[in-house]
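Record now logged for everyone:
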Amino acid sequence: MQTSAMLRWLSICLLIALLAACSAMPGASFGSPTATPTENPTRAACPVIEPAWVKPPQDEAVQGEPGFGYYFVNEDSSIWASAGWADDEEFELRAGGEGVKVGWFRPAGAVLEVTGQRLDGEAPAMEFHASCCYPTRFQASGLYFPTQGCWELDARAAGSELSFVVWVEPEE
């Protein structure tokens, strides 16, 4: 009887040691995790550029006195991109759907070209739509992201450039 009790005790110890060794192996999991990640690791790896809280230039195409808001601004302040989604917790950049309206300031009358590419995976190019021929610095546009992910946008006008990185949420 003592021998069978001893064998049972050794079997239990061996089983515990085996389970402990297996749970320490990469990729192994037993039972439910005790904590769930609060942030998508892909989003955490995206080098998002935070917009600045600044007052945009005055422009006759924009009604009223300019007020402070979130903008991406290049070094010489010749190109500005509004980032209205930055101060609205309910509104985020989303893939698909109707896209997002973005107001730009660029050298007066210059043609604005904006491209976007996904940094963290394959995706069709971002679409940029803007009406022609705004004679002042202001230019309205629509941006359409085909997929969620980490996107770099590049804007060019009259020899000036602005680049920034944003995170785009999945379509609702």
About this structure: Residues 41-168 form a domain with the Immunoglobulin-like fold (CATH 2.60.40.10). The longest strand covers residues 149-157.
